[in-house]
Amino acid sequence: MRALIEKSRVTGRVTAPASKSYTIRALVGAGMASGISCISGALESDDTRAAEEILRNLGAELYRENGNLLVSSGNLAPARVALDCGESAASLRFFSAICATLPGKSVLVSSPGLARRPVTPLLEVLNKMGAGCFVDENRITIHGGCLRGGFYNLEGDISSQFISALLLAAPHVCQGVAYVLGTPPRSRPYIDMTLETLGRFGISVDTAPDYTCFTVEPQAYKPANILIEGDWSSASYLLALGAVNGEVSVEGLNLLSLQADKAILTMLNKMGAGILPDTASVTTRASRLSAIDADVSQCIDLLPTMACCLAMADGKGCLRGISRARLKESNRVEALRRGLEKMGISTEEDEESLTIWGGSPQGAVIDSYNDHRIAMAFAVTGLYSGNTVIERAECVSKTYPRFWDDLIRLGGKVRLQDE
After folding, report:
1. Pick the catalytic residue: 46, 231, 301, 371?
2. Is 278 designated active site?
3. I want to staple 325 with a disulfide (CB 3.0 to 4.6 A). Which of 59, 274, 332, 418 is the partner?
């Protein structure tokens, strides 16, 4: 599908989609608990549906009632079928660790795109703990059971999702476990989200102040009632759109959130955007933006949003801490460079930074590389410049299925066309 975008000035109010990260974490916690948990406001997207189906295949019952997602669980067991993670890296990594605690054989499969993303460091730790994990292209076979406790050393720059996966499995490790990191981890806010979710399900984790050691004793997950807050990653495109091209109010966001991508407010504010937060919503108004230098290492999913904002700002800006963005749904650094240069924006890249000379981007045909964040970020630029086509636009269903509808609701001139 293609999205054909014309220059548009937008205005209005929309509700942010629910947090994908919190929804998947809550699903794992609910699946590990004995009893019925209630998840209110859970995101419905490709990634979260993958996590739901995995839980069903592992033996949990899931059903919707009065807008809530109810999860009845208590005795997860390896499935007779392969667990399809689709494009969801969180599902693949989290459930790999969970399956390692279940006696028997589990098989997880993923899309070819997800299979290119790293998982080996996580499986190596699980193997040291007594599991048998093997990878064959897009297929992971796990022979699980009672994992051995003790101390396990991890690299400091290991993915936060690997740490979160190990923490989610840790309460079911025999005799307790401690994970020791060589250096403080990157993407610490995502670990905070995992620790918060564990706490809601009654799990206690002894965490070193610098996050270099996590100690977990054997514990039982308890059923919980969880309200999922709005997703700052998805909201970043709407907030950026208001800052460059109208006035947009986004409801459903938690200003005290642990989510890393709440940093979009700080970055847009530094660029000179008009930002009006209140108890019900966050509003951004079109302003003349100035380029900034920003470190996105702790909020790497903001790279596409900020790159496209810098393309429409005055001056030269630089985004640092970008190396991990090359290992996402696409090589996002390359995808951004190619797209921006098609729009007449000069860029320069090295291992850890992307420099962008802002100006007046021109309409172009943009390949999303089937990456939801690339598609949504360039949609913002397209509404500013006009005469833009986003290819493979259906990829937004991974995290924000109603994205195009919300743009149209705000007054964006967007037409969707089957290819």
Report:
1. 301
2. no
3. 332
Distance CA 175, CA 49 (A): 33
170-193: pLDDT as tens digits: 999 998 999 999 888 888 999 999
DSSP string, 232-281: HHHHHHHHHHHHHHEEEEEES--TT---GGGGHHHHHHHHT-EEEE-SSE
- 260, 239, 200, 128: CA torsion to nearest 10: -40
Separation of alpha carbons 33 and 26, rounded Å: 11
Instruction: Tell me the C-alpha distance between 90 and 96, whole Å.
Output: 10
Per-residue pLDDT tens digits for 41-85: 999 999 999 999 999 999 999 999 998 999 999 989 999 999 999
By percentage, how much of the chain surpasses pLDDT 90?
Answer: 93
**DSSP letter at 410?**
T
Tell me the CA distances in angstroms from 80 to 57, 104, 358, one per residue in order.
Answer: 8, 10, 54
pLDDT at 115: 84
Sign of CA dihedral 110, 114, 120, 126: negative
Which of 365, 371, 361 lies closest to 399 in space, CA to CA? 371
Q: Which of 121, 116, 132, 195 is nearest to 154 (CA)?
A: 121
Percent of residues, the chain, with pLDDT higher than 70: 100
Mean pLDDT of 261-290: 95
Q: Which two tokens stand for residue 287?
A: 């302003």
Contacts of 250 (CB under 8 A, 6+ apart): 13, 14, 15, 16, 230, 235, 238, 239, 281, 282, 283
pLDDT surpasses 80 at 419: no
